[in-house]
Amino acid sequence: MKKHSAGILLYRLTNTQPEVLLVHPGGPFWAKKDQNAWSIPKGELDDAEELLPAAKREFIEEIGAAPPDGTYIHLGQAKQSSGKVVHAFALESDFNLENFKSNVFAMEWPPKSGRQQEFPENDKAMWVSIGLAKEKLVKGQLPLLETLARRLNINLQDLPPETPDPDPQARLF
User: Fold this and answer.
1) Would you call 16 helix, strand, or coil by DSSP?
2) CA dihedral sign of residues 47, 61, 86, 152
3) Whether pLDDT at 42 is above 60
């Protein structure tokens, strides 16, 4: 049976181009990965849970704060390489990441050591331009970004590849 996740893709309009809020998964597997490693804040649905309430619950778990109020736009769904189906909703909001704090999970680390360590589900959150998001976002979630871009009258294919911010720490939370 396919697993389903729901998430929220916040965006804000800036002087240059729209920015979206992405998170970077925590834990040792993702520690040194950046390109095609970031995600929208999302998580798995509980049994018989409705999509938007699940996306809002997951936002709280992934970001550490309630999602903004507003009228959410359903962006549809996208299938990741794992087979998981991600449903996403978008909302325009200049959400403040100052208090970013993700839930944690425990796993045996190092492998076969018998020791459990805790890691944050997401170790970073950042606003990035929609052009840079197409480079950072996991490939399976790109259709959701493309749907948002179309709604904003932006053709992602027309955007040149972007170079990362020279001081990414200034934008990370």
Assistant:
1) coil
2) positive
3) yes
